[in-house]
Amino acid sequence: MAAQAGADLLGAEKRRLLDRTFEELQEMCRHPCDNLDCDERLKFGDVTDNARVKCSFVCLQKKKVARDFLKQTPRQIFEFNHQNIQDGKKSKILHISIQCDACGEEGGRIKLQDTVEKLYLDLRQYLANDKAQPLLYRPGKPNEDIPDDAKAVCELTHRPCVDDFAKNCLTSEALQSIRQSLQPEHELYNKLRAKGVKAQEKFGDKTMTYIRIGLGLLELGQYTAVLELWPKGYKSPKHHHGGCAGSVRVLYGALNCQLFDSILDDEPIKFKGNDGQLGLPNEGQSVLKLTTGDTTWLNRQNWWVHQVQCHDDFDFALSVHLYKSCSDAFAFMKPITGHTEALTKVEGAGTLEKGMPNNDYFWNVSLPASDKRVEEIGRPADNAQSAGPLDFELLEEQKEAQDKLLHTRVLLTRKREGEEERGGERRREEERGGSSKDDDGWVPAHYAAFNGHKEALQLLHDLAPETLSSKGNDGWVPAHWAAENGHAEALQLLHDLAPETPAHCTLR
Ligand SMILES: [Zn+2]
Ligand SMILES: [Zn+2]
After folding, report:
1. Which ligand is nearest to the CA of 297?
2. Is 0.95 exceeded by the ipTM?
3. What is the spatial distance between Cα 446 and Cα 472, in angstroms, rounded to a whole number?
4. Amino acid 506: pLDDT
């Protein structure tokens, strides 16, 4: 029979999905609600991509609700419908309506009448976080039970270029150089501290950050993999990936992952026994350990909300991440923290915020100079140093040099454009060089002082001297940060270059 021959194209777990009862499947029924006034939908604020809410299956015969279908399987209803189609009894055909539990809005319909493949694909759209699927991708194996979109991204992460990167670039010397750079006064240490200050403001936790390094690998085509560096004790915030398909491959150390049903949930999903085909103990656990060599995945239907951190057994972990069809709905919870009049700390449920994280560095392995990504953030692969062991101090120096170059170029271009007719405007534009503020009210001088970069401070003095005493939102001038972080020479330089720096800015 044609339908059964087709069914064999599905993996074993995919086939089994059609033999699970609707009662069992309903546990996983989640779909975005289209009703703009739905209370559950409103909790997601302006995050609309993949903002799934709990839904139920309702079985309909024409417009009449058919009861007692929950003990039936999709395949049984499919076969019932086929029999009725053959017998010419179209009025008996059953279909399934997916309805929001909160407001009753219909989110979709499943017809159960064409082919089992169609039925499988239709059904999958409405099911979230199905633990029957394998959580780990196995390179070189069919992986037939991993959804096709996620499997494709896992395959990209296992292309020879990524294997070669792990083997040739993440050598023991490179790992040692990372370890070194995480020590006080070194580049990665300083970068983490600077990011920690922002994380403290954003999430109320200075350890809620990690280092992101764009990877320039020619063989990945338009996709840019990200090498994520997780120092011990640091973690990502819990975040929502929207509708993208992605893969996470651990290249060094181990990661602890927690998966959530929804970005609005506090409690992570618990796994036990053969959930995720992981062979776990029978008491539930919410932390999943991914070790070197493990690759996991996510897509629009599964595991798109997670939190990641370095496993305690390692001083840091490295993982390569690849995302396809990324929507703009990357979102995280911003805790509502504040003080009541009595100065007791109050913690609210938090608000949902959108925001794509930026890369901190770019490690170009094989992209040519003509590649846009190299022009913007990296450097060409034919540069003798680009494929050697990673040296973050060097990378940072080059990035700074590039920033300076870019800045000079912008100024020169503006000069040429505005020379005659817009002289006054040009001068005002130039005056703005180095003075743009970020969300925290920081100007580039704050960053330079925070990291103790004397040359950068000198350069900023030439470009925009007034910014050396500019106040951030918290009222701190760059010298406060140089003092806070013990950068004596940078602090002295600030006192010399910016006489208006408050005299109380001294090393403690
Ligand atoms: Zn609703
Ligand atoms: Zn993520």
Report:
1. 2
2. yes
3. 8
4. 77
Residues with CB under 5 A from ligand 1 (ion): 33, 35, 38, 100, 102-103, 105
Residue 299 lies inside a defined structural domain of this protein: yes
Cα separation, 483 vs 479, in Å, equals: 6
- The continuous run of DSSP H or E covering 82 comes out as helix 74-86
Round to whole Å and give the CA distance between 262 and 305: 6
Q: What is the distance in A from the centroid of ligand 2 to the CA of 228?
A: 10
Q: Residue 401 falls within a domain, yes or no?
A: yes
Asked whether 89 and 13 are in contact (CB, 8 A), the reply is: no
Q: From CA 298, how far away is CA 304, in angstroms rounded?
A: 6
Ligand 2 centroid to residue 307 C-alpha, Å:
7
pLDDT single digits (tens) 51-76: 999 999 999 998 899 988 999 999 99
Q: Ligand 2 centre from 240 Cα, in Å?
A: 7
pLDDT at 377: 56
**Residue range 223-249: average pLDDT?**
93
- Regarding whether 442 and 366 lie in a shared domain, the answer is no
Evaluate whether residue 191 is within a structural domain: no
Tokens of 493: 């330089």
**449 token code pair:** 């002082």
Q: Does 72 reside within a domain?
A: yes
The CATH number that applies at residue 402 is: 1.25.40.20
